[in-house]
Specification:
Blueprint (H helix, E strand, L loop, with lengths): L2 E7 L7 E6 L6 E2 L4 E6 L3 E6 L4 E6 L6 E2 L4 E6 L7 E5 L30 E5 L9 E6 L6 E2 L4 E6 L4 E5 L4 E6 L6 E2 L4 E7 L5 H8 L15 E5 L9 E6 L6 E2 L4 E6 L3 E6 L4 E6 L6 E2 L4 E7 L3 H8 L6 E3 L34 H10 L17 H16 L31 H16 L2 E9 L1 H9 L1 H7 L5 H15 L5 E3 L6 E3 L5 E3 L1 E3 L2 E3 L2 E2 L7 H16 L13 E5 L18 E5 L3 E6 L4 E14 L5 H16 L7
Parallel strand pairs: 1-9, 10-26, 30-34, 34-35
Antiparallel strand pairs: 1-8, 2-4, 2-7, 3-6, 4-5, 5-22, 6-8, 10-17, 11-13, 11-16, 12-15, 13-14, 15-17, 18-25, 19-21, 19-24, 20-23, 21-22, 23-25, 27-37, 28-29, 30-33, 31-32, 35-37, 36-37
Helix pairs in contact: 8-9, 8-10
Bound molecules: oxidized coenzyme A (CAO).
Oxidized coenzyme A binds next to helix 8, strand 31 and strand 34.
């Protein structure tokens, strides 16, 4: 049977890396690139993908193990292709190879100082991440050109990437040692640049004295050096998912500058030296590649940046800062990810694999807020899921952590510490009501006005109809009168018979008058709607209302019975109270609260007269309705209730 052993590939030189997740088990069928295990160093977590498809025969690692390049991960039974083979370790090419030893490759570069006057710098090809014989596809400068530090000298192209090689110094190009179409490797002579003086004075002077002094790093020019993305193992256009520093920040060597994320790994890019961030040219969401500059670092002391080249005391050539190469010889201000064992001091101490980070970004979750349940508090997808589930649940309950408005959550309280309690399940209607109330309360800028309607005559009229009502089998409470009066007021003051259009640009003016009435049912508060109230008589309204109330209390209301309202009446008159502020039932723009009518003395100009006063409160959406409109509406409403004959007008 054909089997294949998959080993830990090149993990950038890191040794004994923690296995934090084993994603497969014996018997699993895997596809090419499926994640086998997840590794985590101090600075990066990375998925190790399958380099073969098939059925897992054995798994050689467990969660918590430590592995290095070449260790066996799994054995896979593959279809076809005869004998057993191995993959991973040395032949794997999809992980980073941030081998800092490559950075000293400038030594064999010949001294191209031509002995002419002035400070001349010999520039050599920097570390190309291990690539050799790379095509020169463009010459960006010619002898006689003036270049600034960082300007491209040439463009190289491998089969994986094209990369600019920037000038390490400012000055005049004296000569170019390469031509278009040449092939170059690390350390090859590239150009001679006559510096303008000052900036590279230390190295320039050494040049003229032909190799008697060690080369100085470019950072010594003014103490600033670019922060360069190290070798990303061939990955290009990698997402910047986090910026850990800001301009002006002091960083210590090893501090995270930014966090990157590829499909397979998330990794911190640490500072290669201590200093102050002078400029930062990337932002979250940008894409970067190996060698890209992400800003400038003012070095605190210069020893560190000069260090990599000191050993090459015979050389006066200056390798260009590795724009797209790994672990550049000029030691830019970002170091290879896996070469730094410094603790993360960036404050982003979240341990999460790339898949978890990706999911978090898709869900808009701030990982800092999620508690990790894995080793070293590492976040798992389950942690993320339960965090999101919890938030959604609380939001659905109305008063929870997230109302979508950024309002802080009401903290959870263990009430049992104060006495006996019982948890009673909320009905669906109660939960929906809570949700609607929060939504309406937060979305609608409420204004509430109060007034009393003198219903002395109305009540006399209503009581006079009692016998007739009984005969008809009807129940005539004040509510049908309120419905009729509200319908008339909506017609008289159409600014109340509107909704805000969702485009934020329009008002929807309605030419129908459907009114909802809040009904207290055993399941919770429901609002059945009576249609065309303005076209119906009192008896019809009374009967229809009773029918709807019965349906509501028996749980028989259909969704259509509760839709299309233009205005709502909420009556607590039968229960008592002198006033309350009803919440607008959006997308309606107003609601009438009805409290308990009572006989009160009213001054008639010469005497106090006992009158039956009905306390009313009118809440409205101030986006749609102005106070003056509300005043007119309310005055009309109370006058109609005071003299129902006006309904005939
Ligand atoms: N003042 C004094 N008495 C009143 C009154 C008022 N405002 N409103 C009603 N009454 C009287 C009625 O006339 C009736 O007495 P009679 O039988 O002697 O005529 C008695 O109170 C009981 O009325 P009712 O409750 O049977 O009927 P209703 O039409 O007044 O109300 C309903 C029906 C469904 C609106 C009411 O029962 C209800 O469920 N209200 C709850 C509304 C609610 O919870 N709103 C949310 C508040 S927060 O927004």
């Amino acid at each position: 049977m054909a089997t294949e052993i998959i080993k830990v590939p090149d993990i950038g030189g890191a040794e004994s890396v923690d296995v934090i997740e084993v994603s497969v088990a014996v018997g699993d069928t895997i596809e090419l690139e499926d994640t086998l295990i997840v590794l985590e160093t101090d600075k990066a977590s990375m998925d190790i993908p399958a380099s073969a498809a098939g059925k897992i025969v054995s798994v050689s690692v467990n969660e918590g193990d430590k592995v290095s390049e070449g260790d066996v991960i799994v054995e896979v039974e593959v279809e076809g292709s005869g004998s057993s083979s191995e993959s991973g370790s040395s032949d794997s090419s999809n992980t980073s190879s941030t081998d800092s030893s490559k950075s000293s490759g400038s030594a064999n570069n010949s001294d191209s100082s031509d002995g002419s006057a002035g400070s001349e710098e010999s520039v050599s090809v920097p570390d190309l991440g291990g690539a050799d014989n790379v095509d020169v596809i463009e010459l960006c400068v010619a002898p006689g050109d003036t270049v600034e530090e960082g300007d491209s000298l040439i463009v190289l192209e491998t089969d994986k990437a094209s990369l600019d090689v920037p000038s390490p110094v400012s000055g005049e190009v004296v000569s170019l040692a390469v031509s278009d179409g040449d092939k170059v490797s690390q350390g090859d002579a590239l150009a001679v640049i006559r510096t303008a003086g000052g900036a590279s004075s230390s190295s320039s002077s050494s040049d003229t004295e032909s190799a008697s002094q060690p080369e100085s790093a470019p950072s010594e020019s003014g103490g600033e050096q670019p922060m360069i993305i190290p070798d990303l193992g061939g990955s290009e256009n990698v997402d910047v998912i986090e910026i850990c520093v800001a301009e002006g920040d002091e960083v210590a060597e090893g501090d995270s500058l930014i966090v990157l994320e590829t499909d397979k790994a998330s990794l911190d890019v640490p500072a290669s030296a201590s200093g102050k961030v002078v400029s930062l040219t990337v932002k979250e969401g940008d894409k970067v590649s190996s060698g890209d500059s992400i800003g400038t670092l003012a070095i605190a002391g210069q020893a560190a940046s000069a260090a990599p080249q000191k050993s090459e005391s015979a050389s006066t050539s200056k390798p260009a800062p590795a724009a797209k190469a790994s672990a550049p010889a000029a030691k830019p201000a970002s170091a290879p990810v896996t070469n730094n064992a410094e603790p993360d001091t960036s404050g982003s101490n979240v341990y999460a694999g790339p898949a978890v980070r990706k999911l978090a970004r898709q869900l808009g979750v701030n990982l800092d807020k999620v508690k990790g349940s894995g080793p070293r508090k590492r976040l798992t997808k389950d942690d993320l899921r339960s965090y999101v589930k919890n938030i959604v649940k609380q939001a659905e309950q109305g008063g929870g952590a997230s109302t979508g408005s950024g309002i802080p959550a009401i903290p959870a309280v263990d009430f049992s510490q104060f006495g006996d309690i019982e948890l009673v399940k909320m009905s669906k209607i109660k939960k929906l009501t809570a949700e609607n109330m929060v939504r309406n309360w937060l979305n609608v800028p409420h204004v509430t006005q109060w007034d009393d309607a003198d219903i002395t005559e109305l009540e006399a009229f209503r009581k006079g109809l009692k016998a007739e009502a009984e005969k008809r089998g009807s129940k005539l409470t004040p509510l049908p009168f309120l419905l009729k009066a509200a319908a008339a007021a909506l017609r008289a003051e159409p600014s109340f018979n509107v909704s805000m259009h969702h485009d934020g640009e329009h008002i929807v003016q309605k030419d129908y008058v459907h009114i909802g009435v809040a009904v207290d049912s055993p399941m919770g508060l429901v609002v059945p709607v009576i249609r065309d109230v303005d076209k119906k008589g009192l008896w019809e309204l009374a009967d229809e209302f009773v029918e709807l109330v019965n349906k509501a209390r028996n749980g028989k209301l259909m969704p259509k019975d509760m839709q299309g309202g233009c205005f709502t009446i909420s009556s607590l008159g039968a229960m008592g109270g002198t006033g309350f502020t009803p919440i607008v039932n959006a997308p309606e723009v107003a609601i009438l609260g009805v409290s308990k009518a009572d006989i009160k003395p009213v001054w008639n100009g010469s005497d106090f007269e006992p009158r039956n006063l009905l306390p009313l409160s009118l809440s409205y959406d101030h986006r749609a309705i102005n106070g003056a409109d509300a005043g007119r509406f309310f005055t009309f409403l109370t006058s109609v209730l005071s003299d129902v004959r006006r309904l005939l007008l």
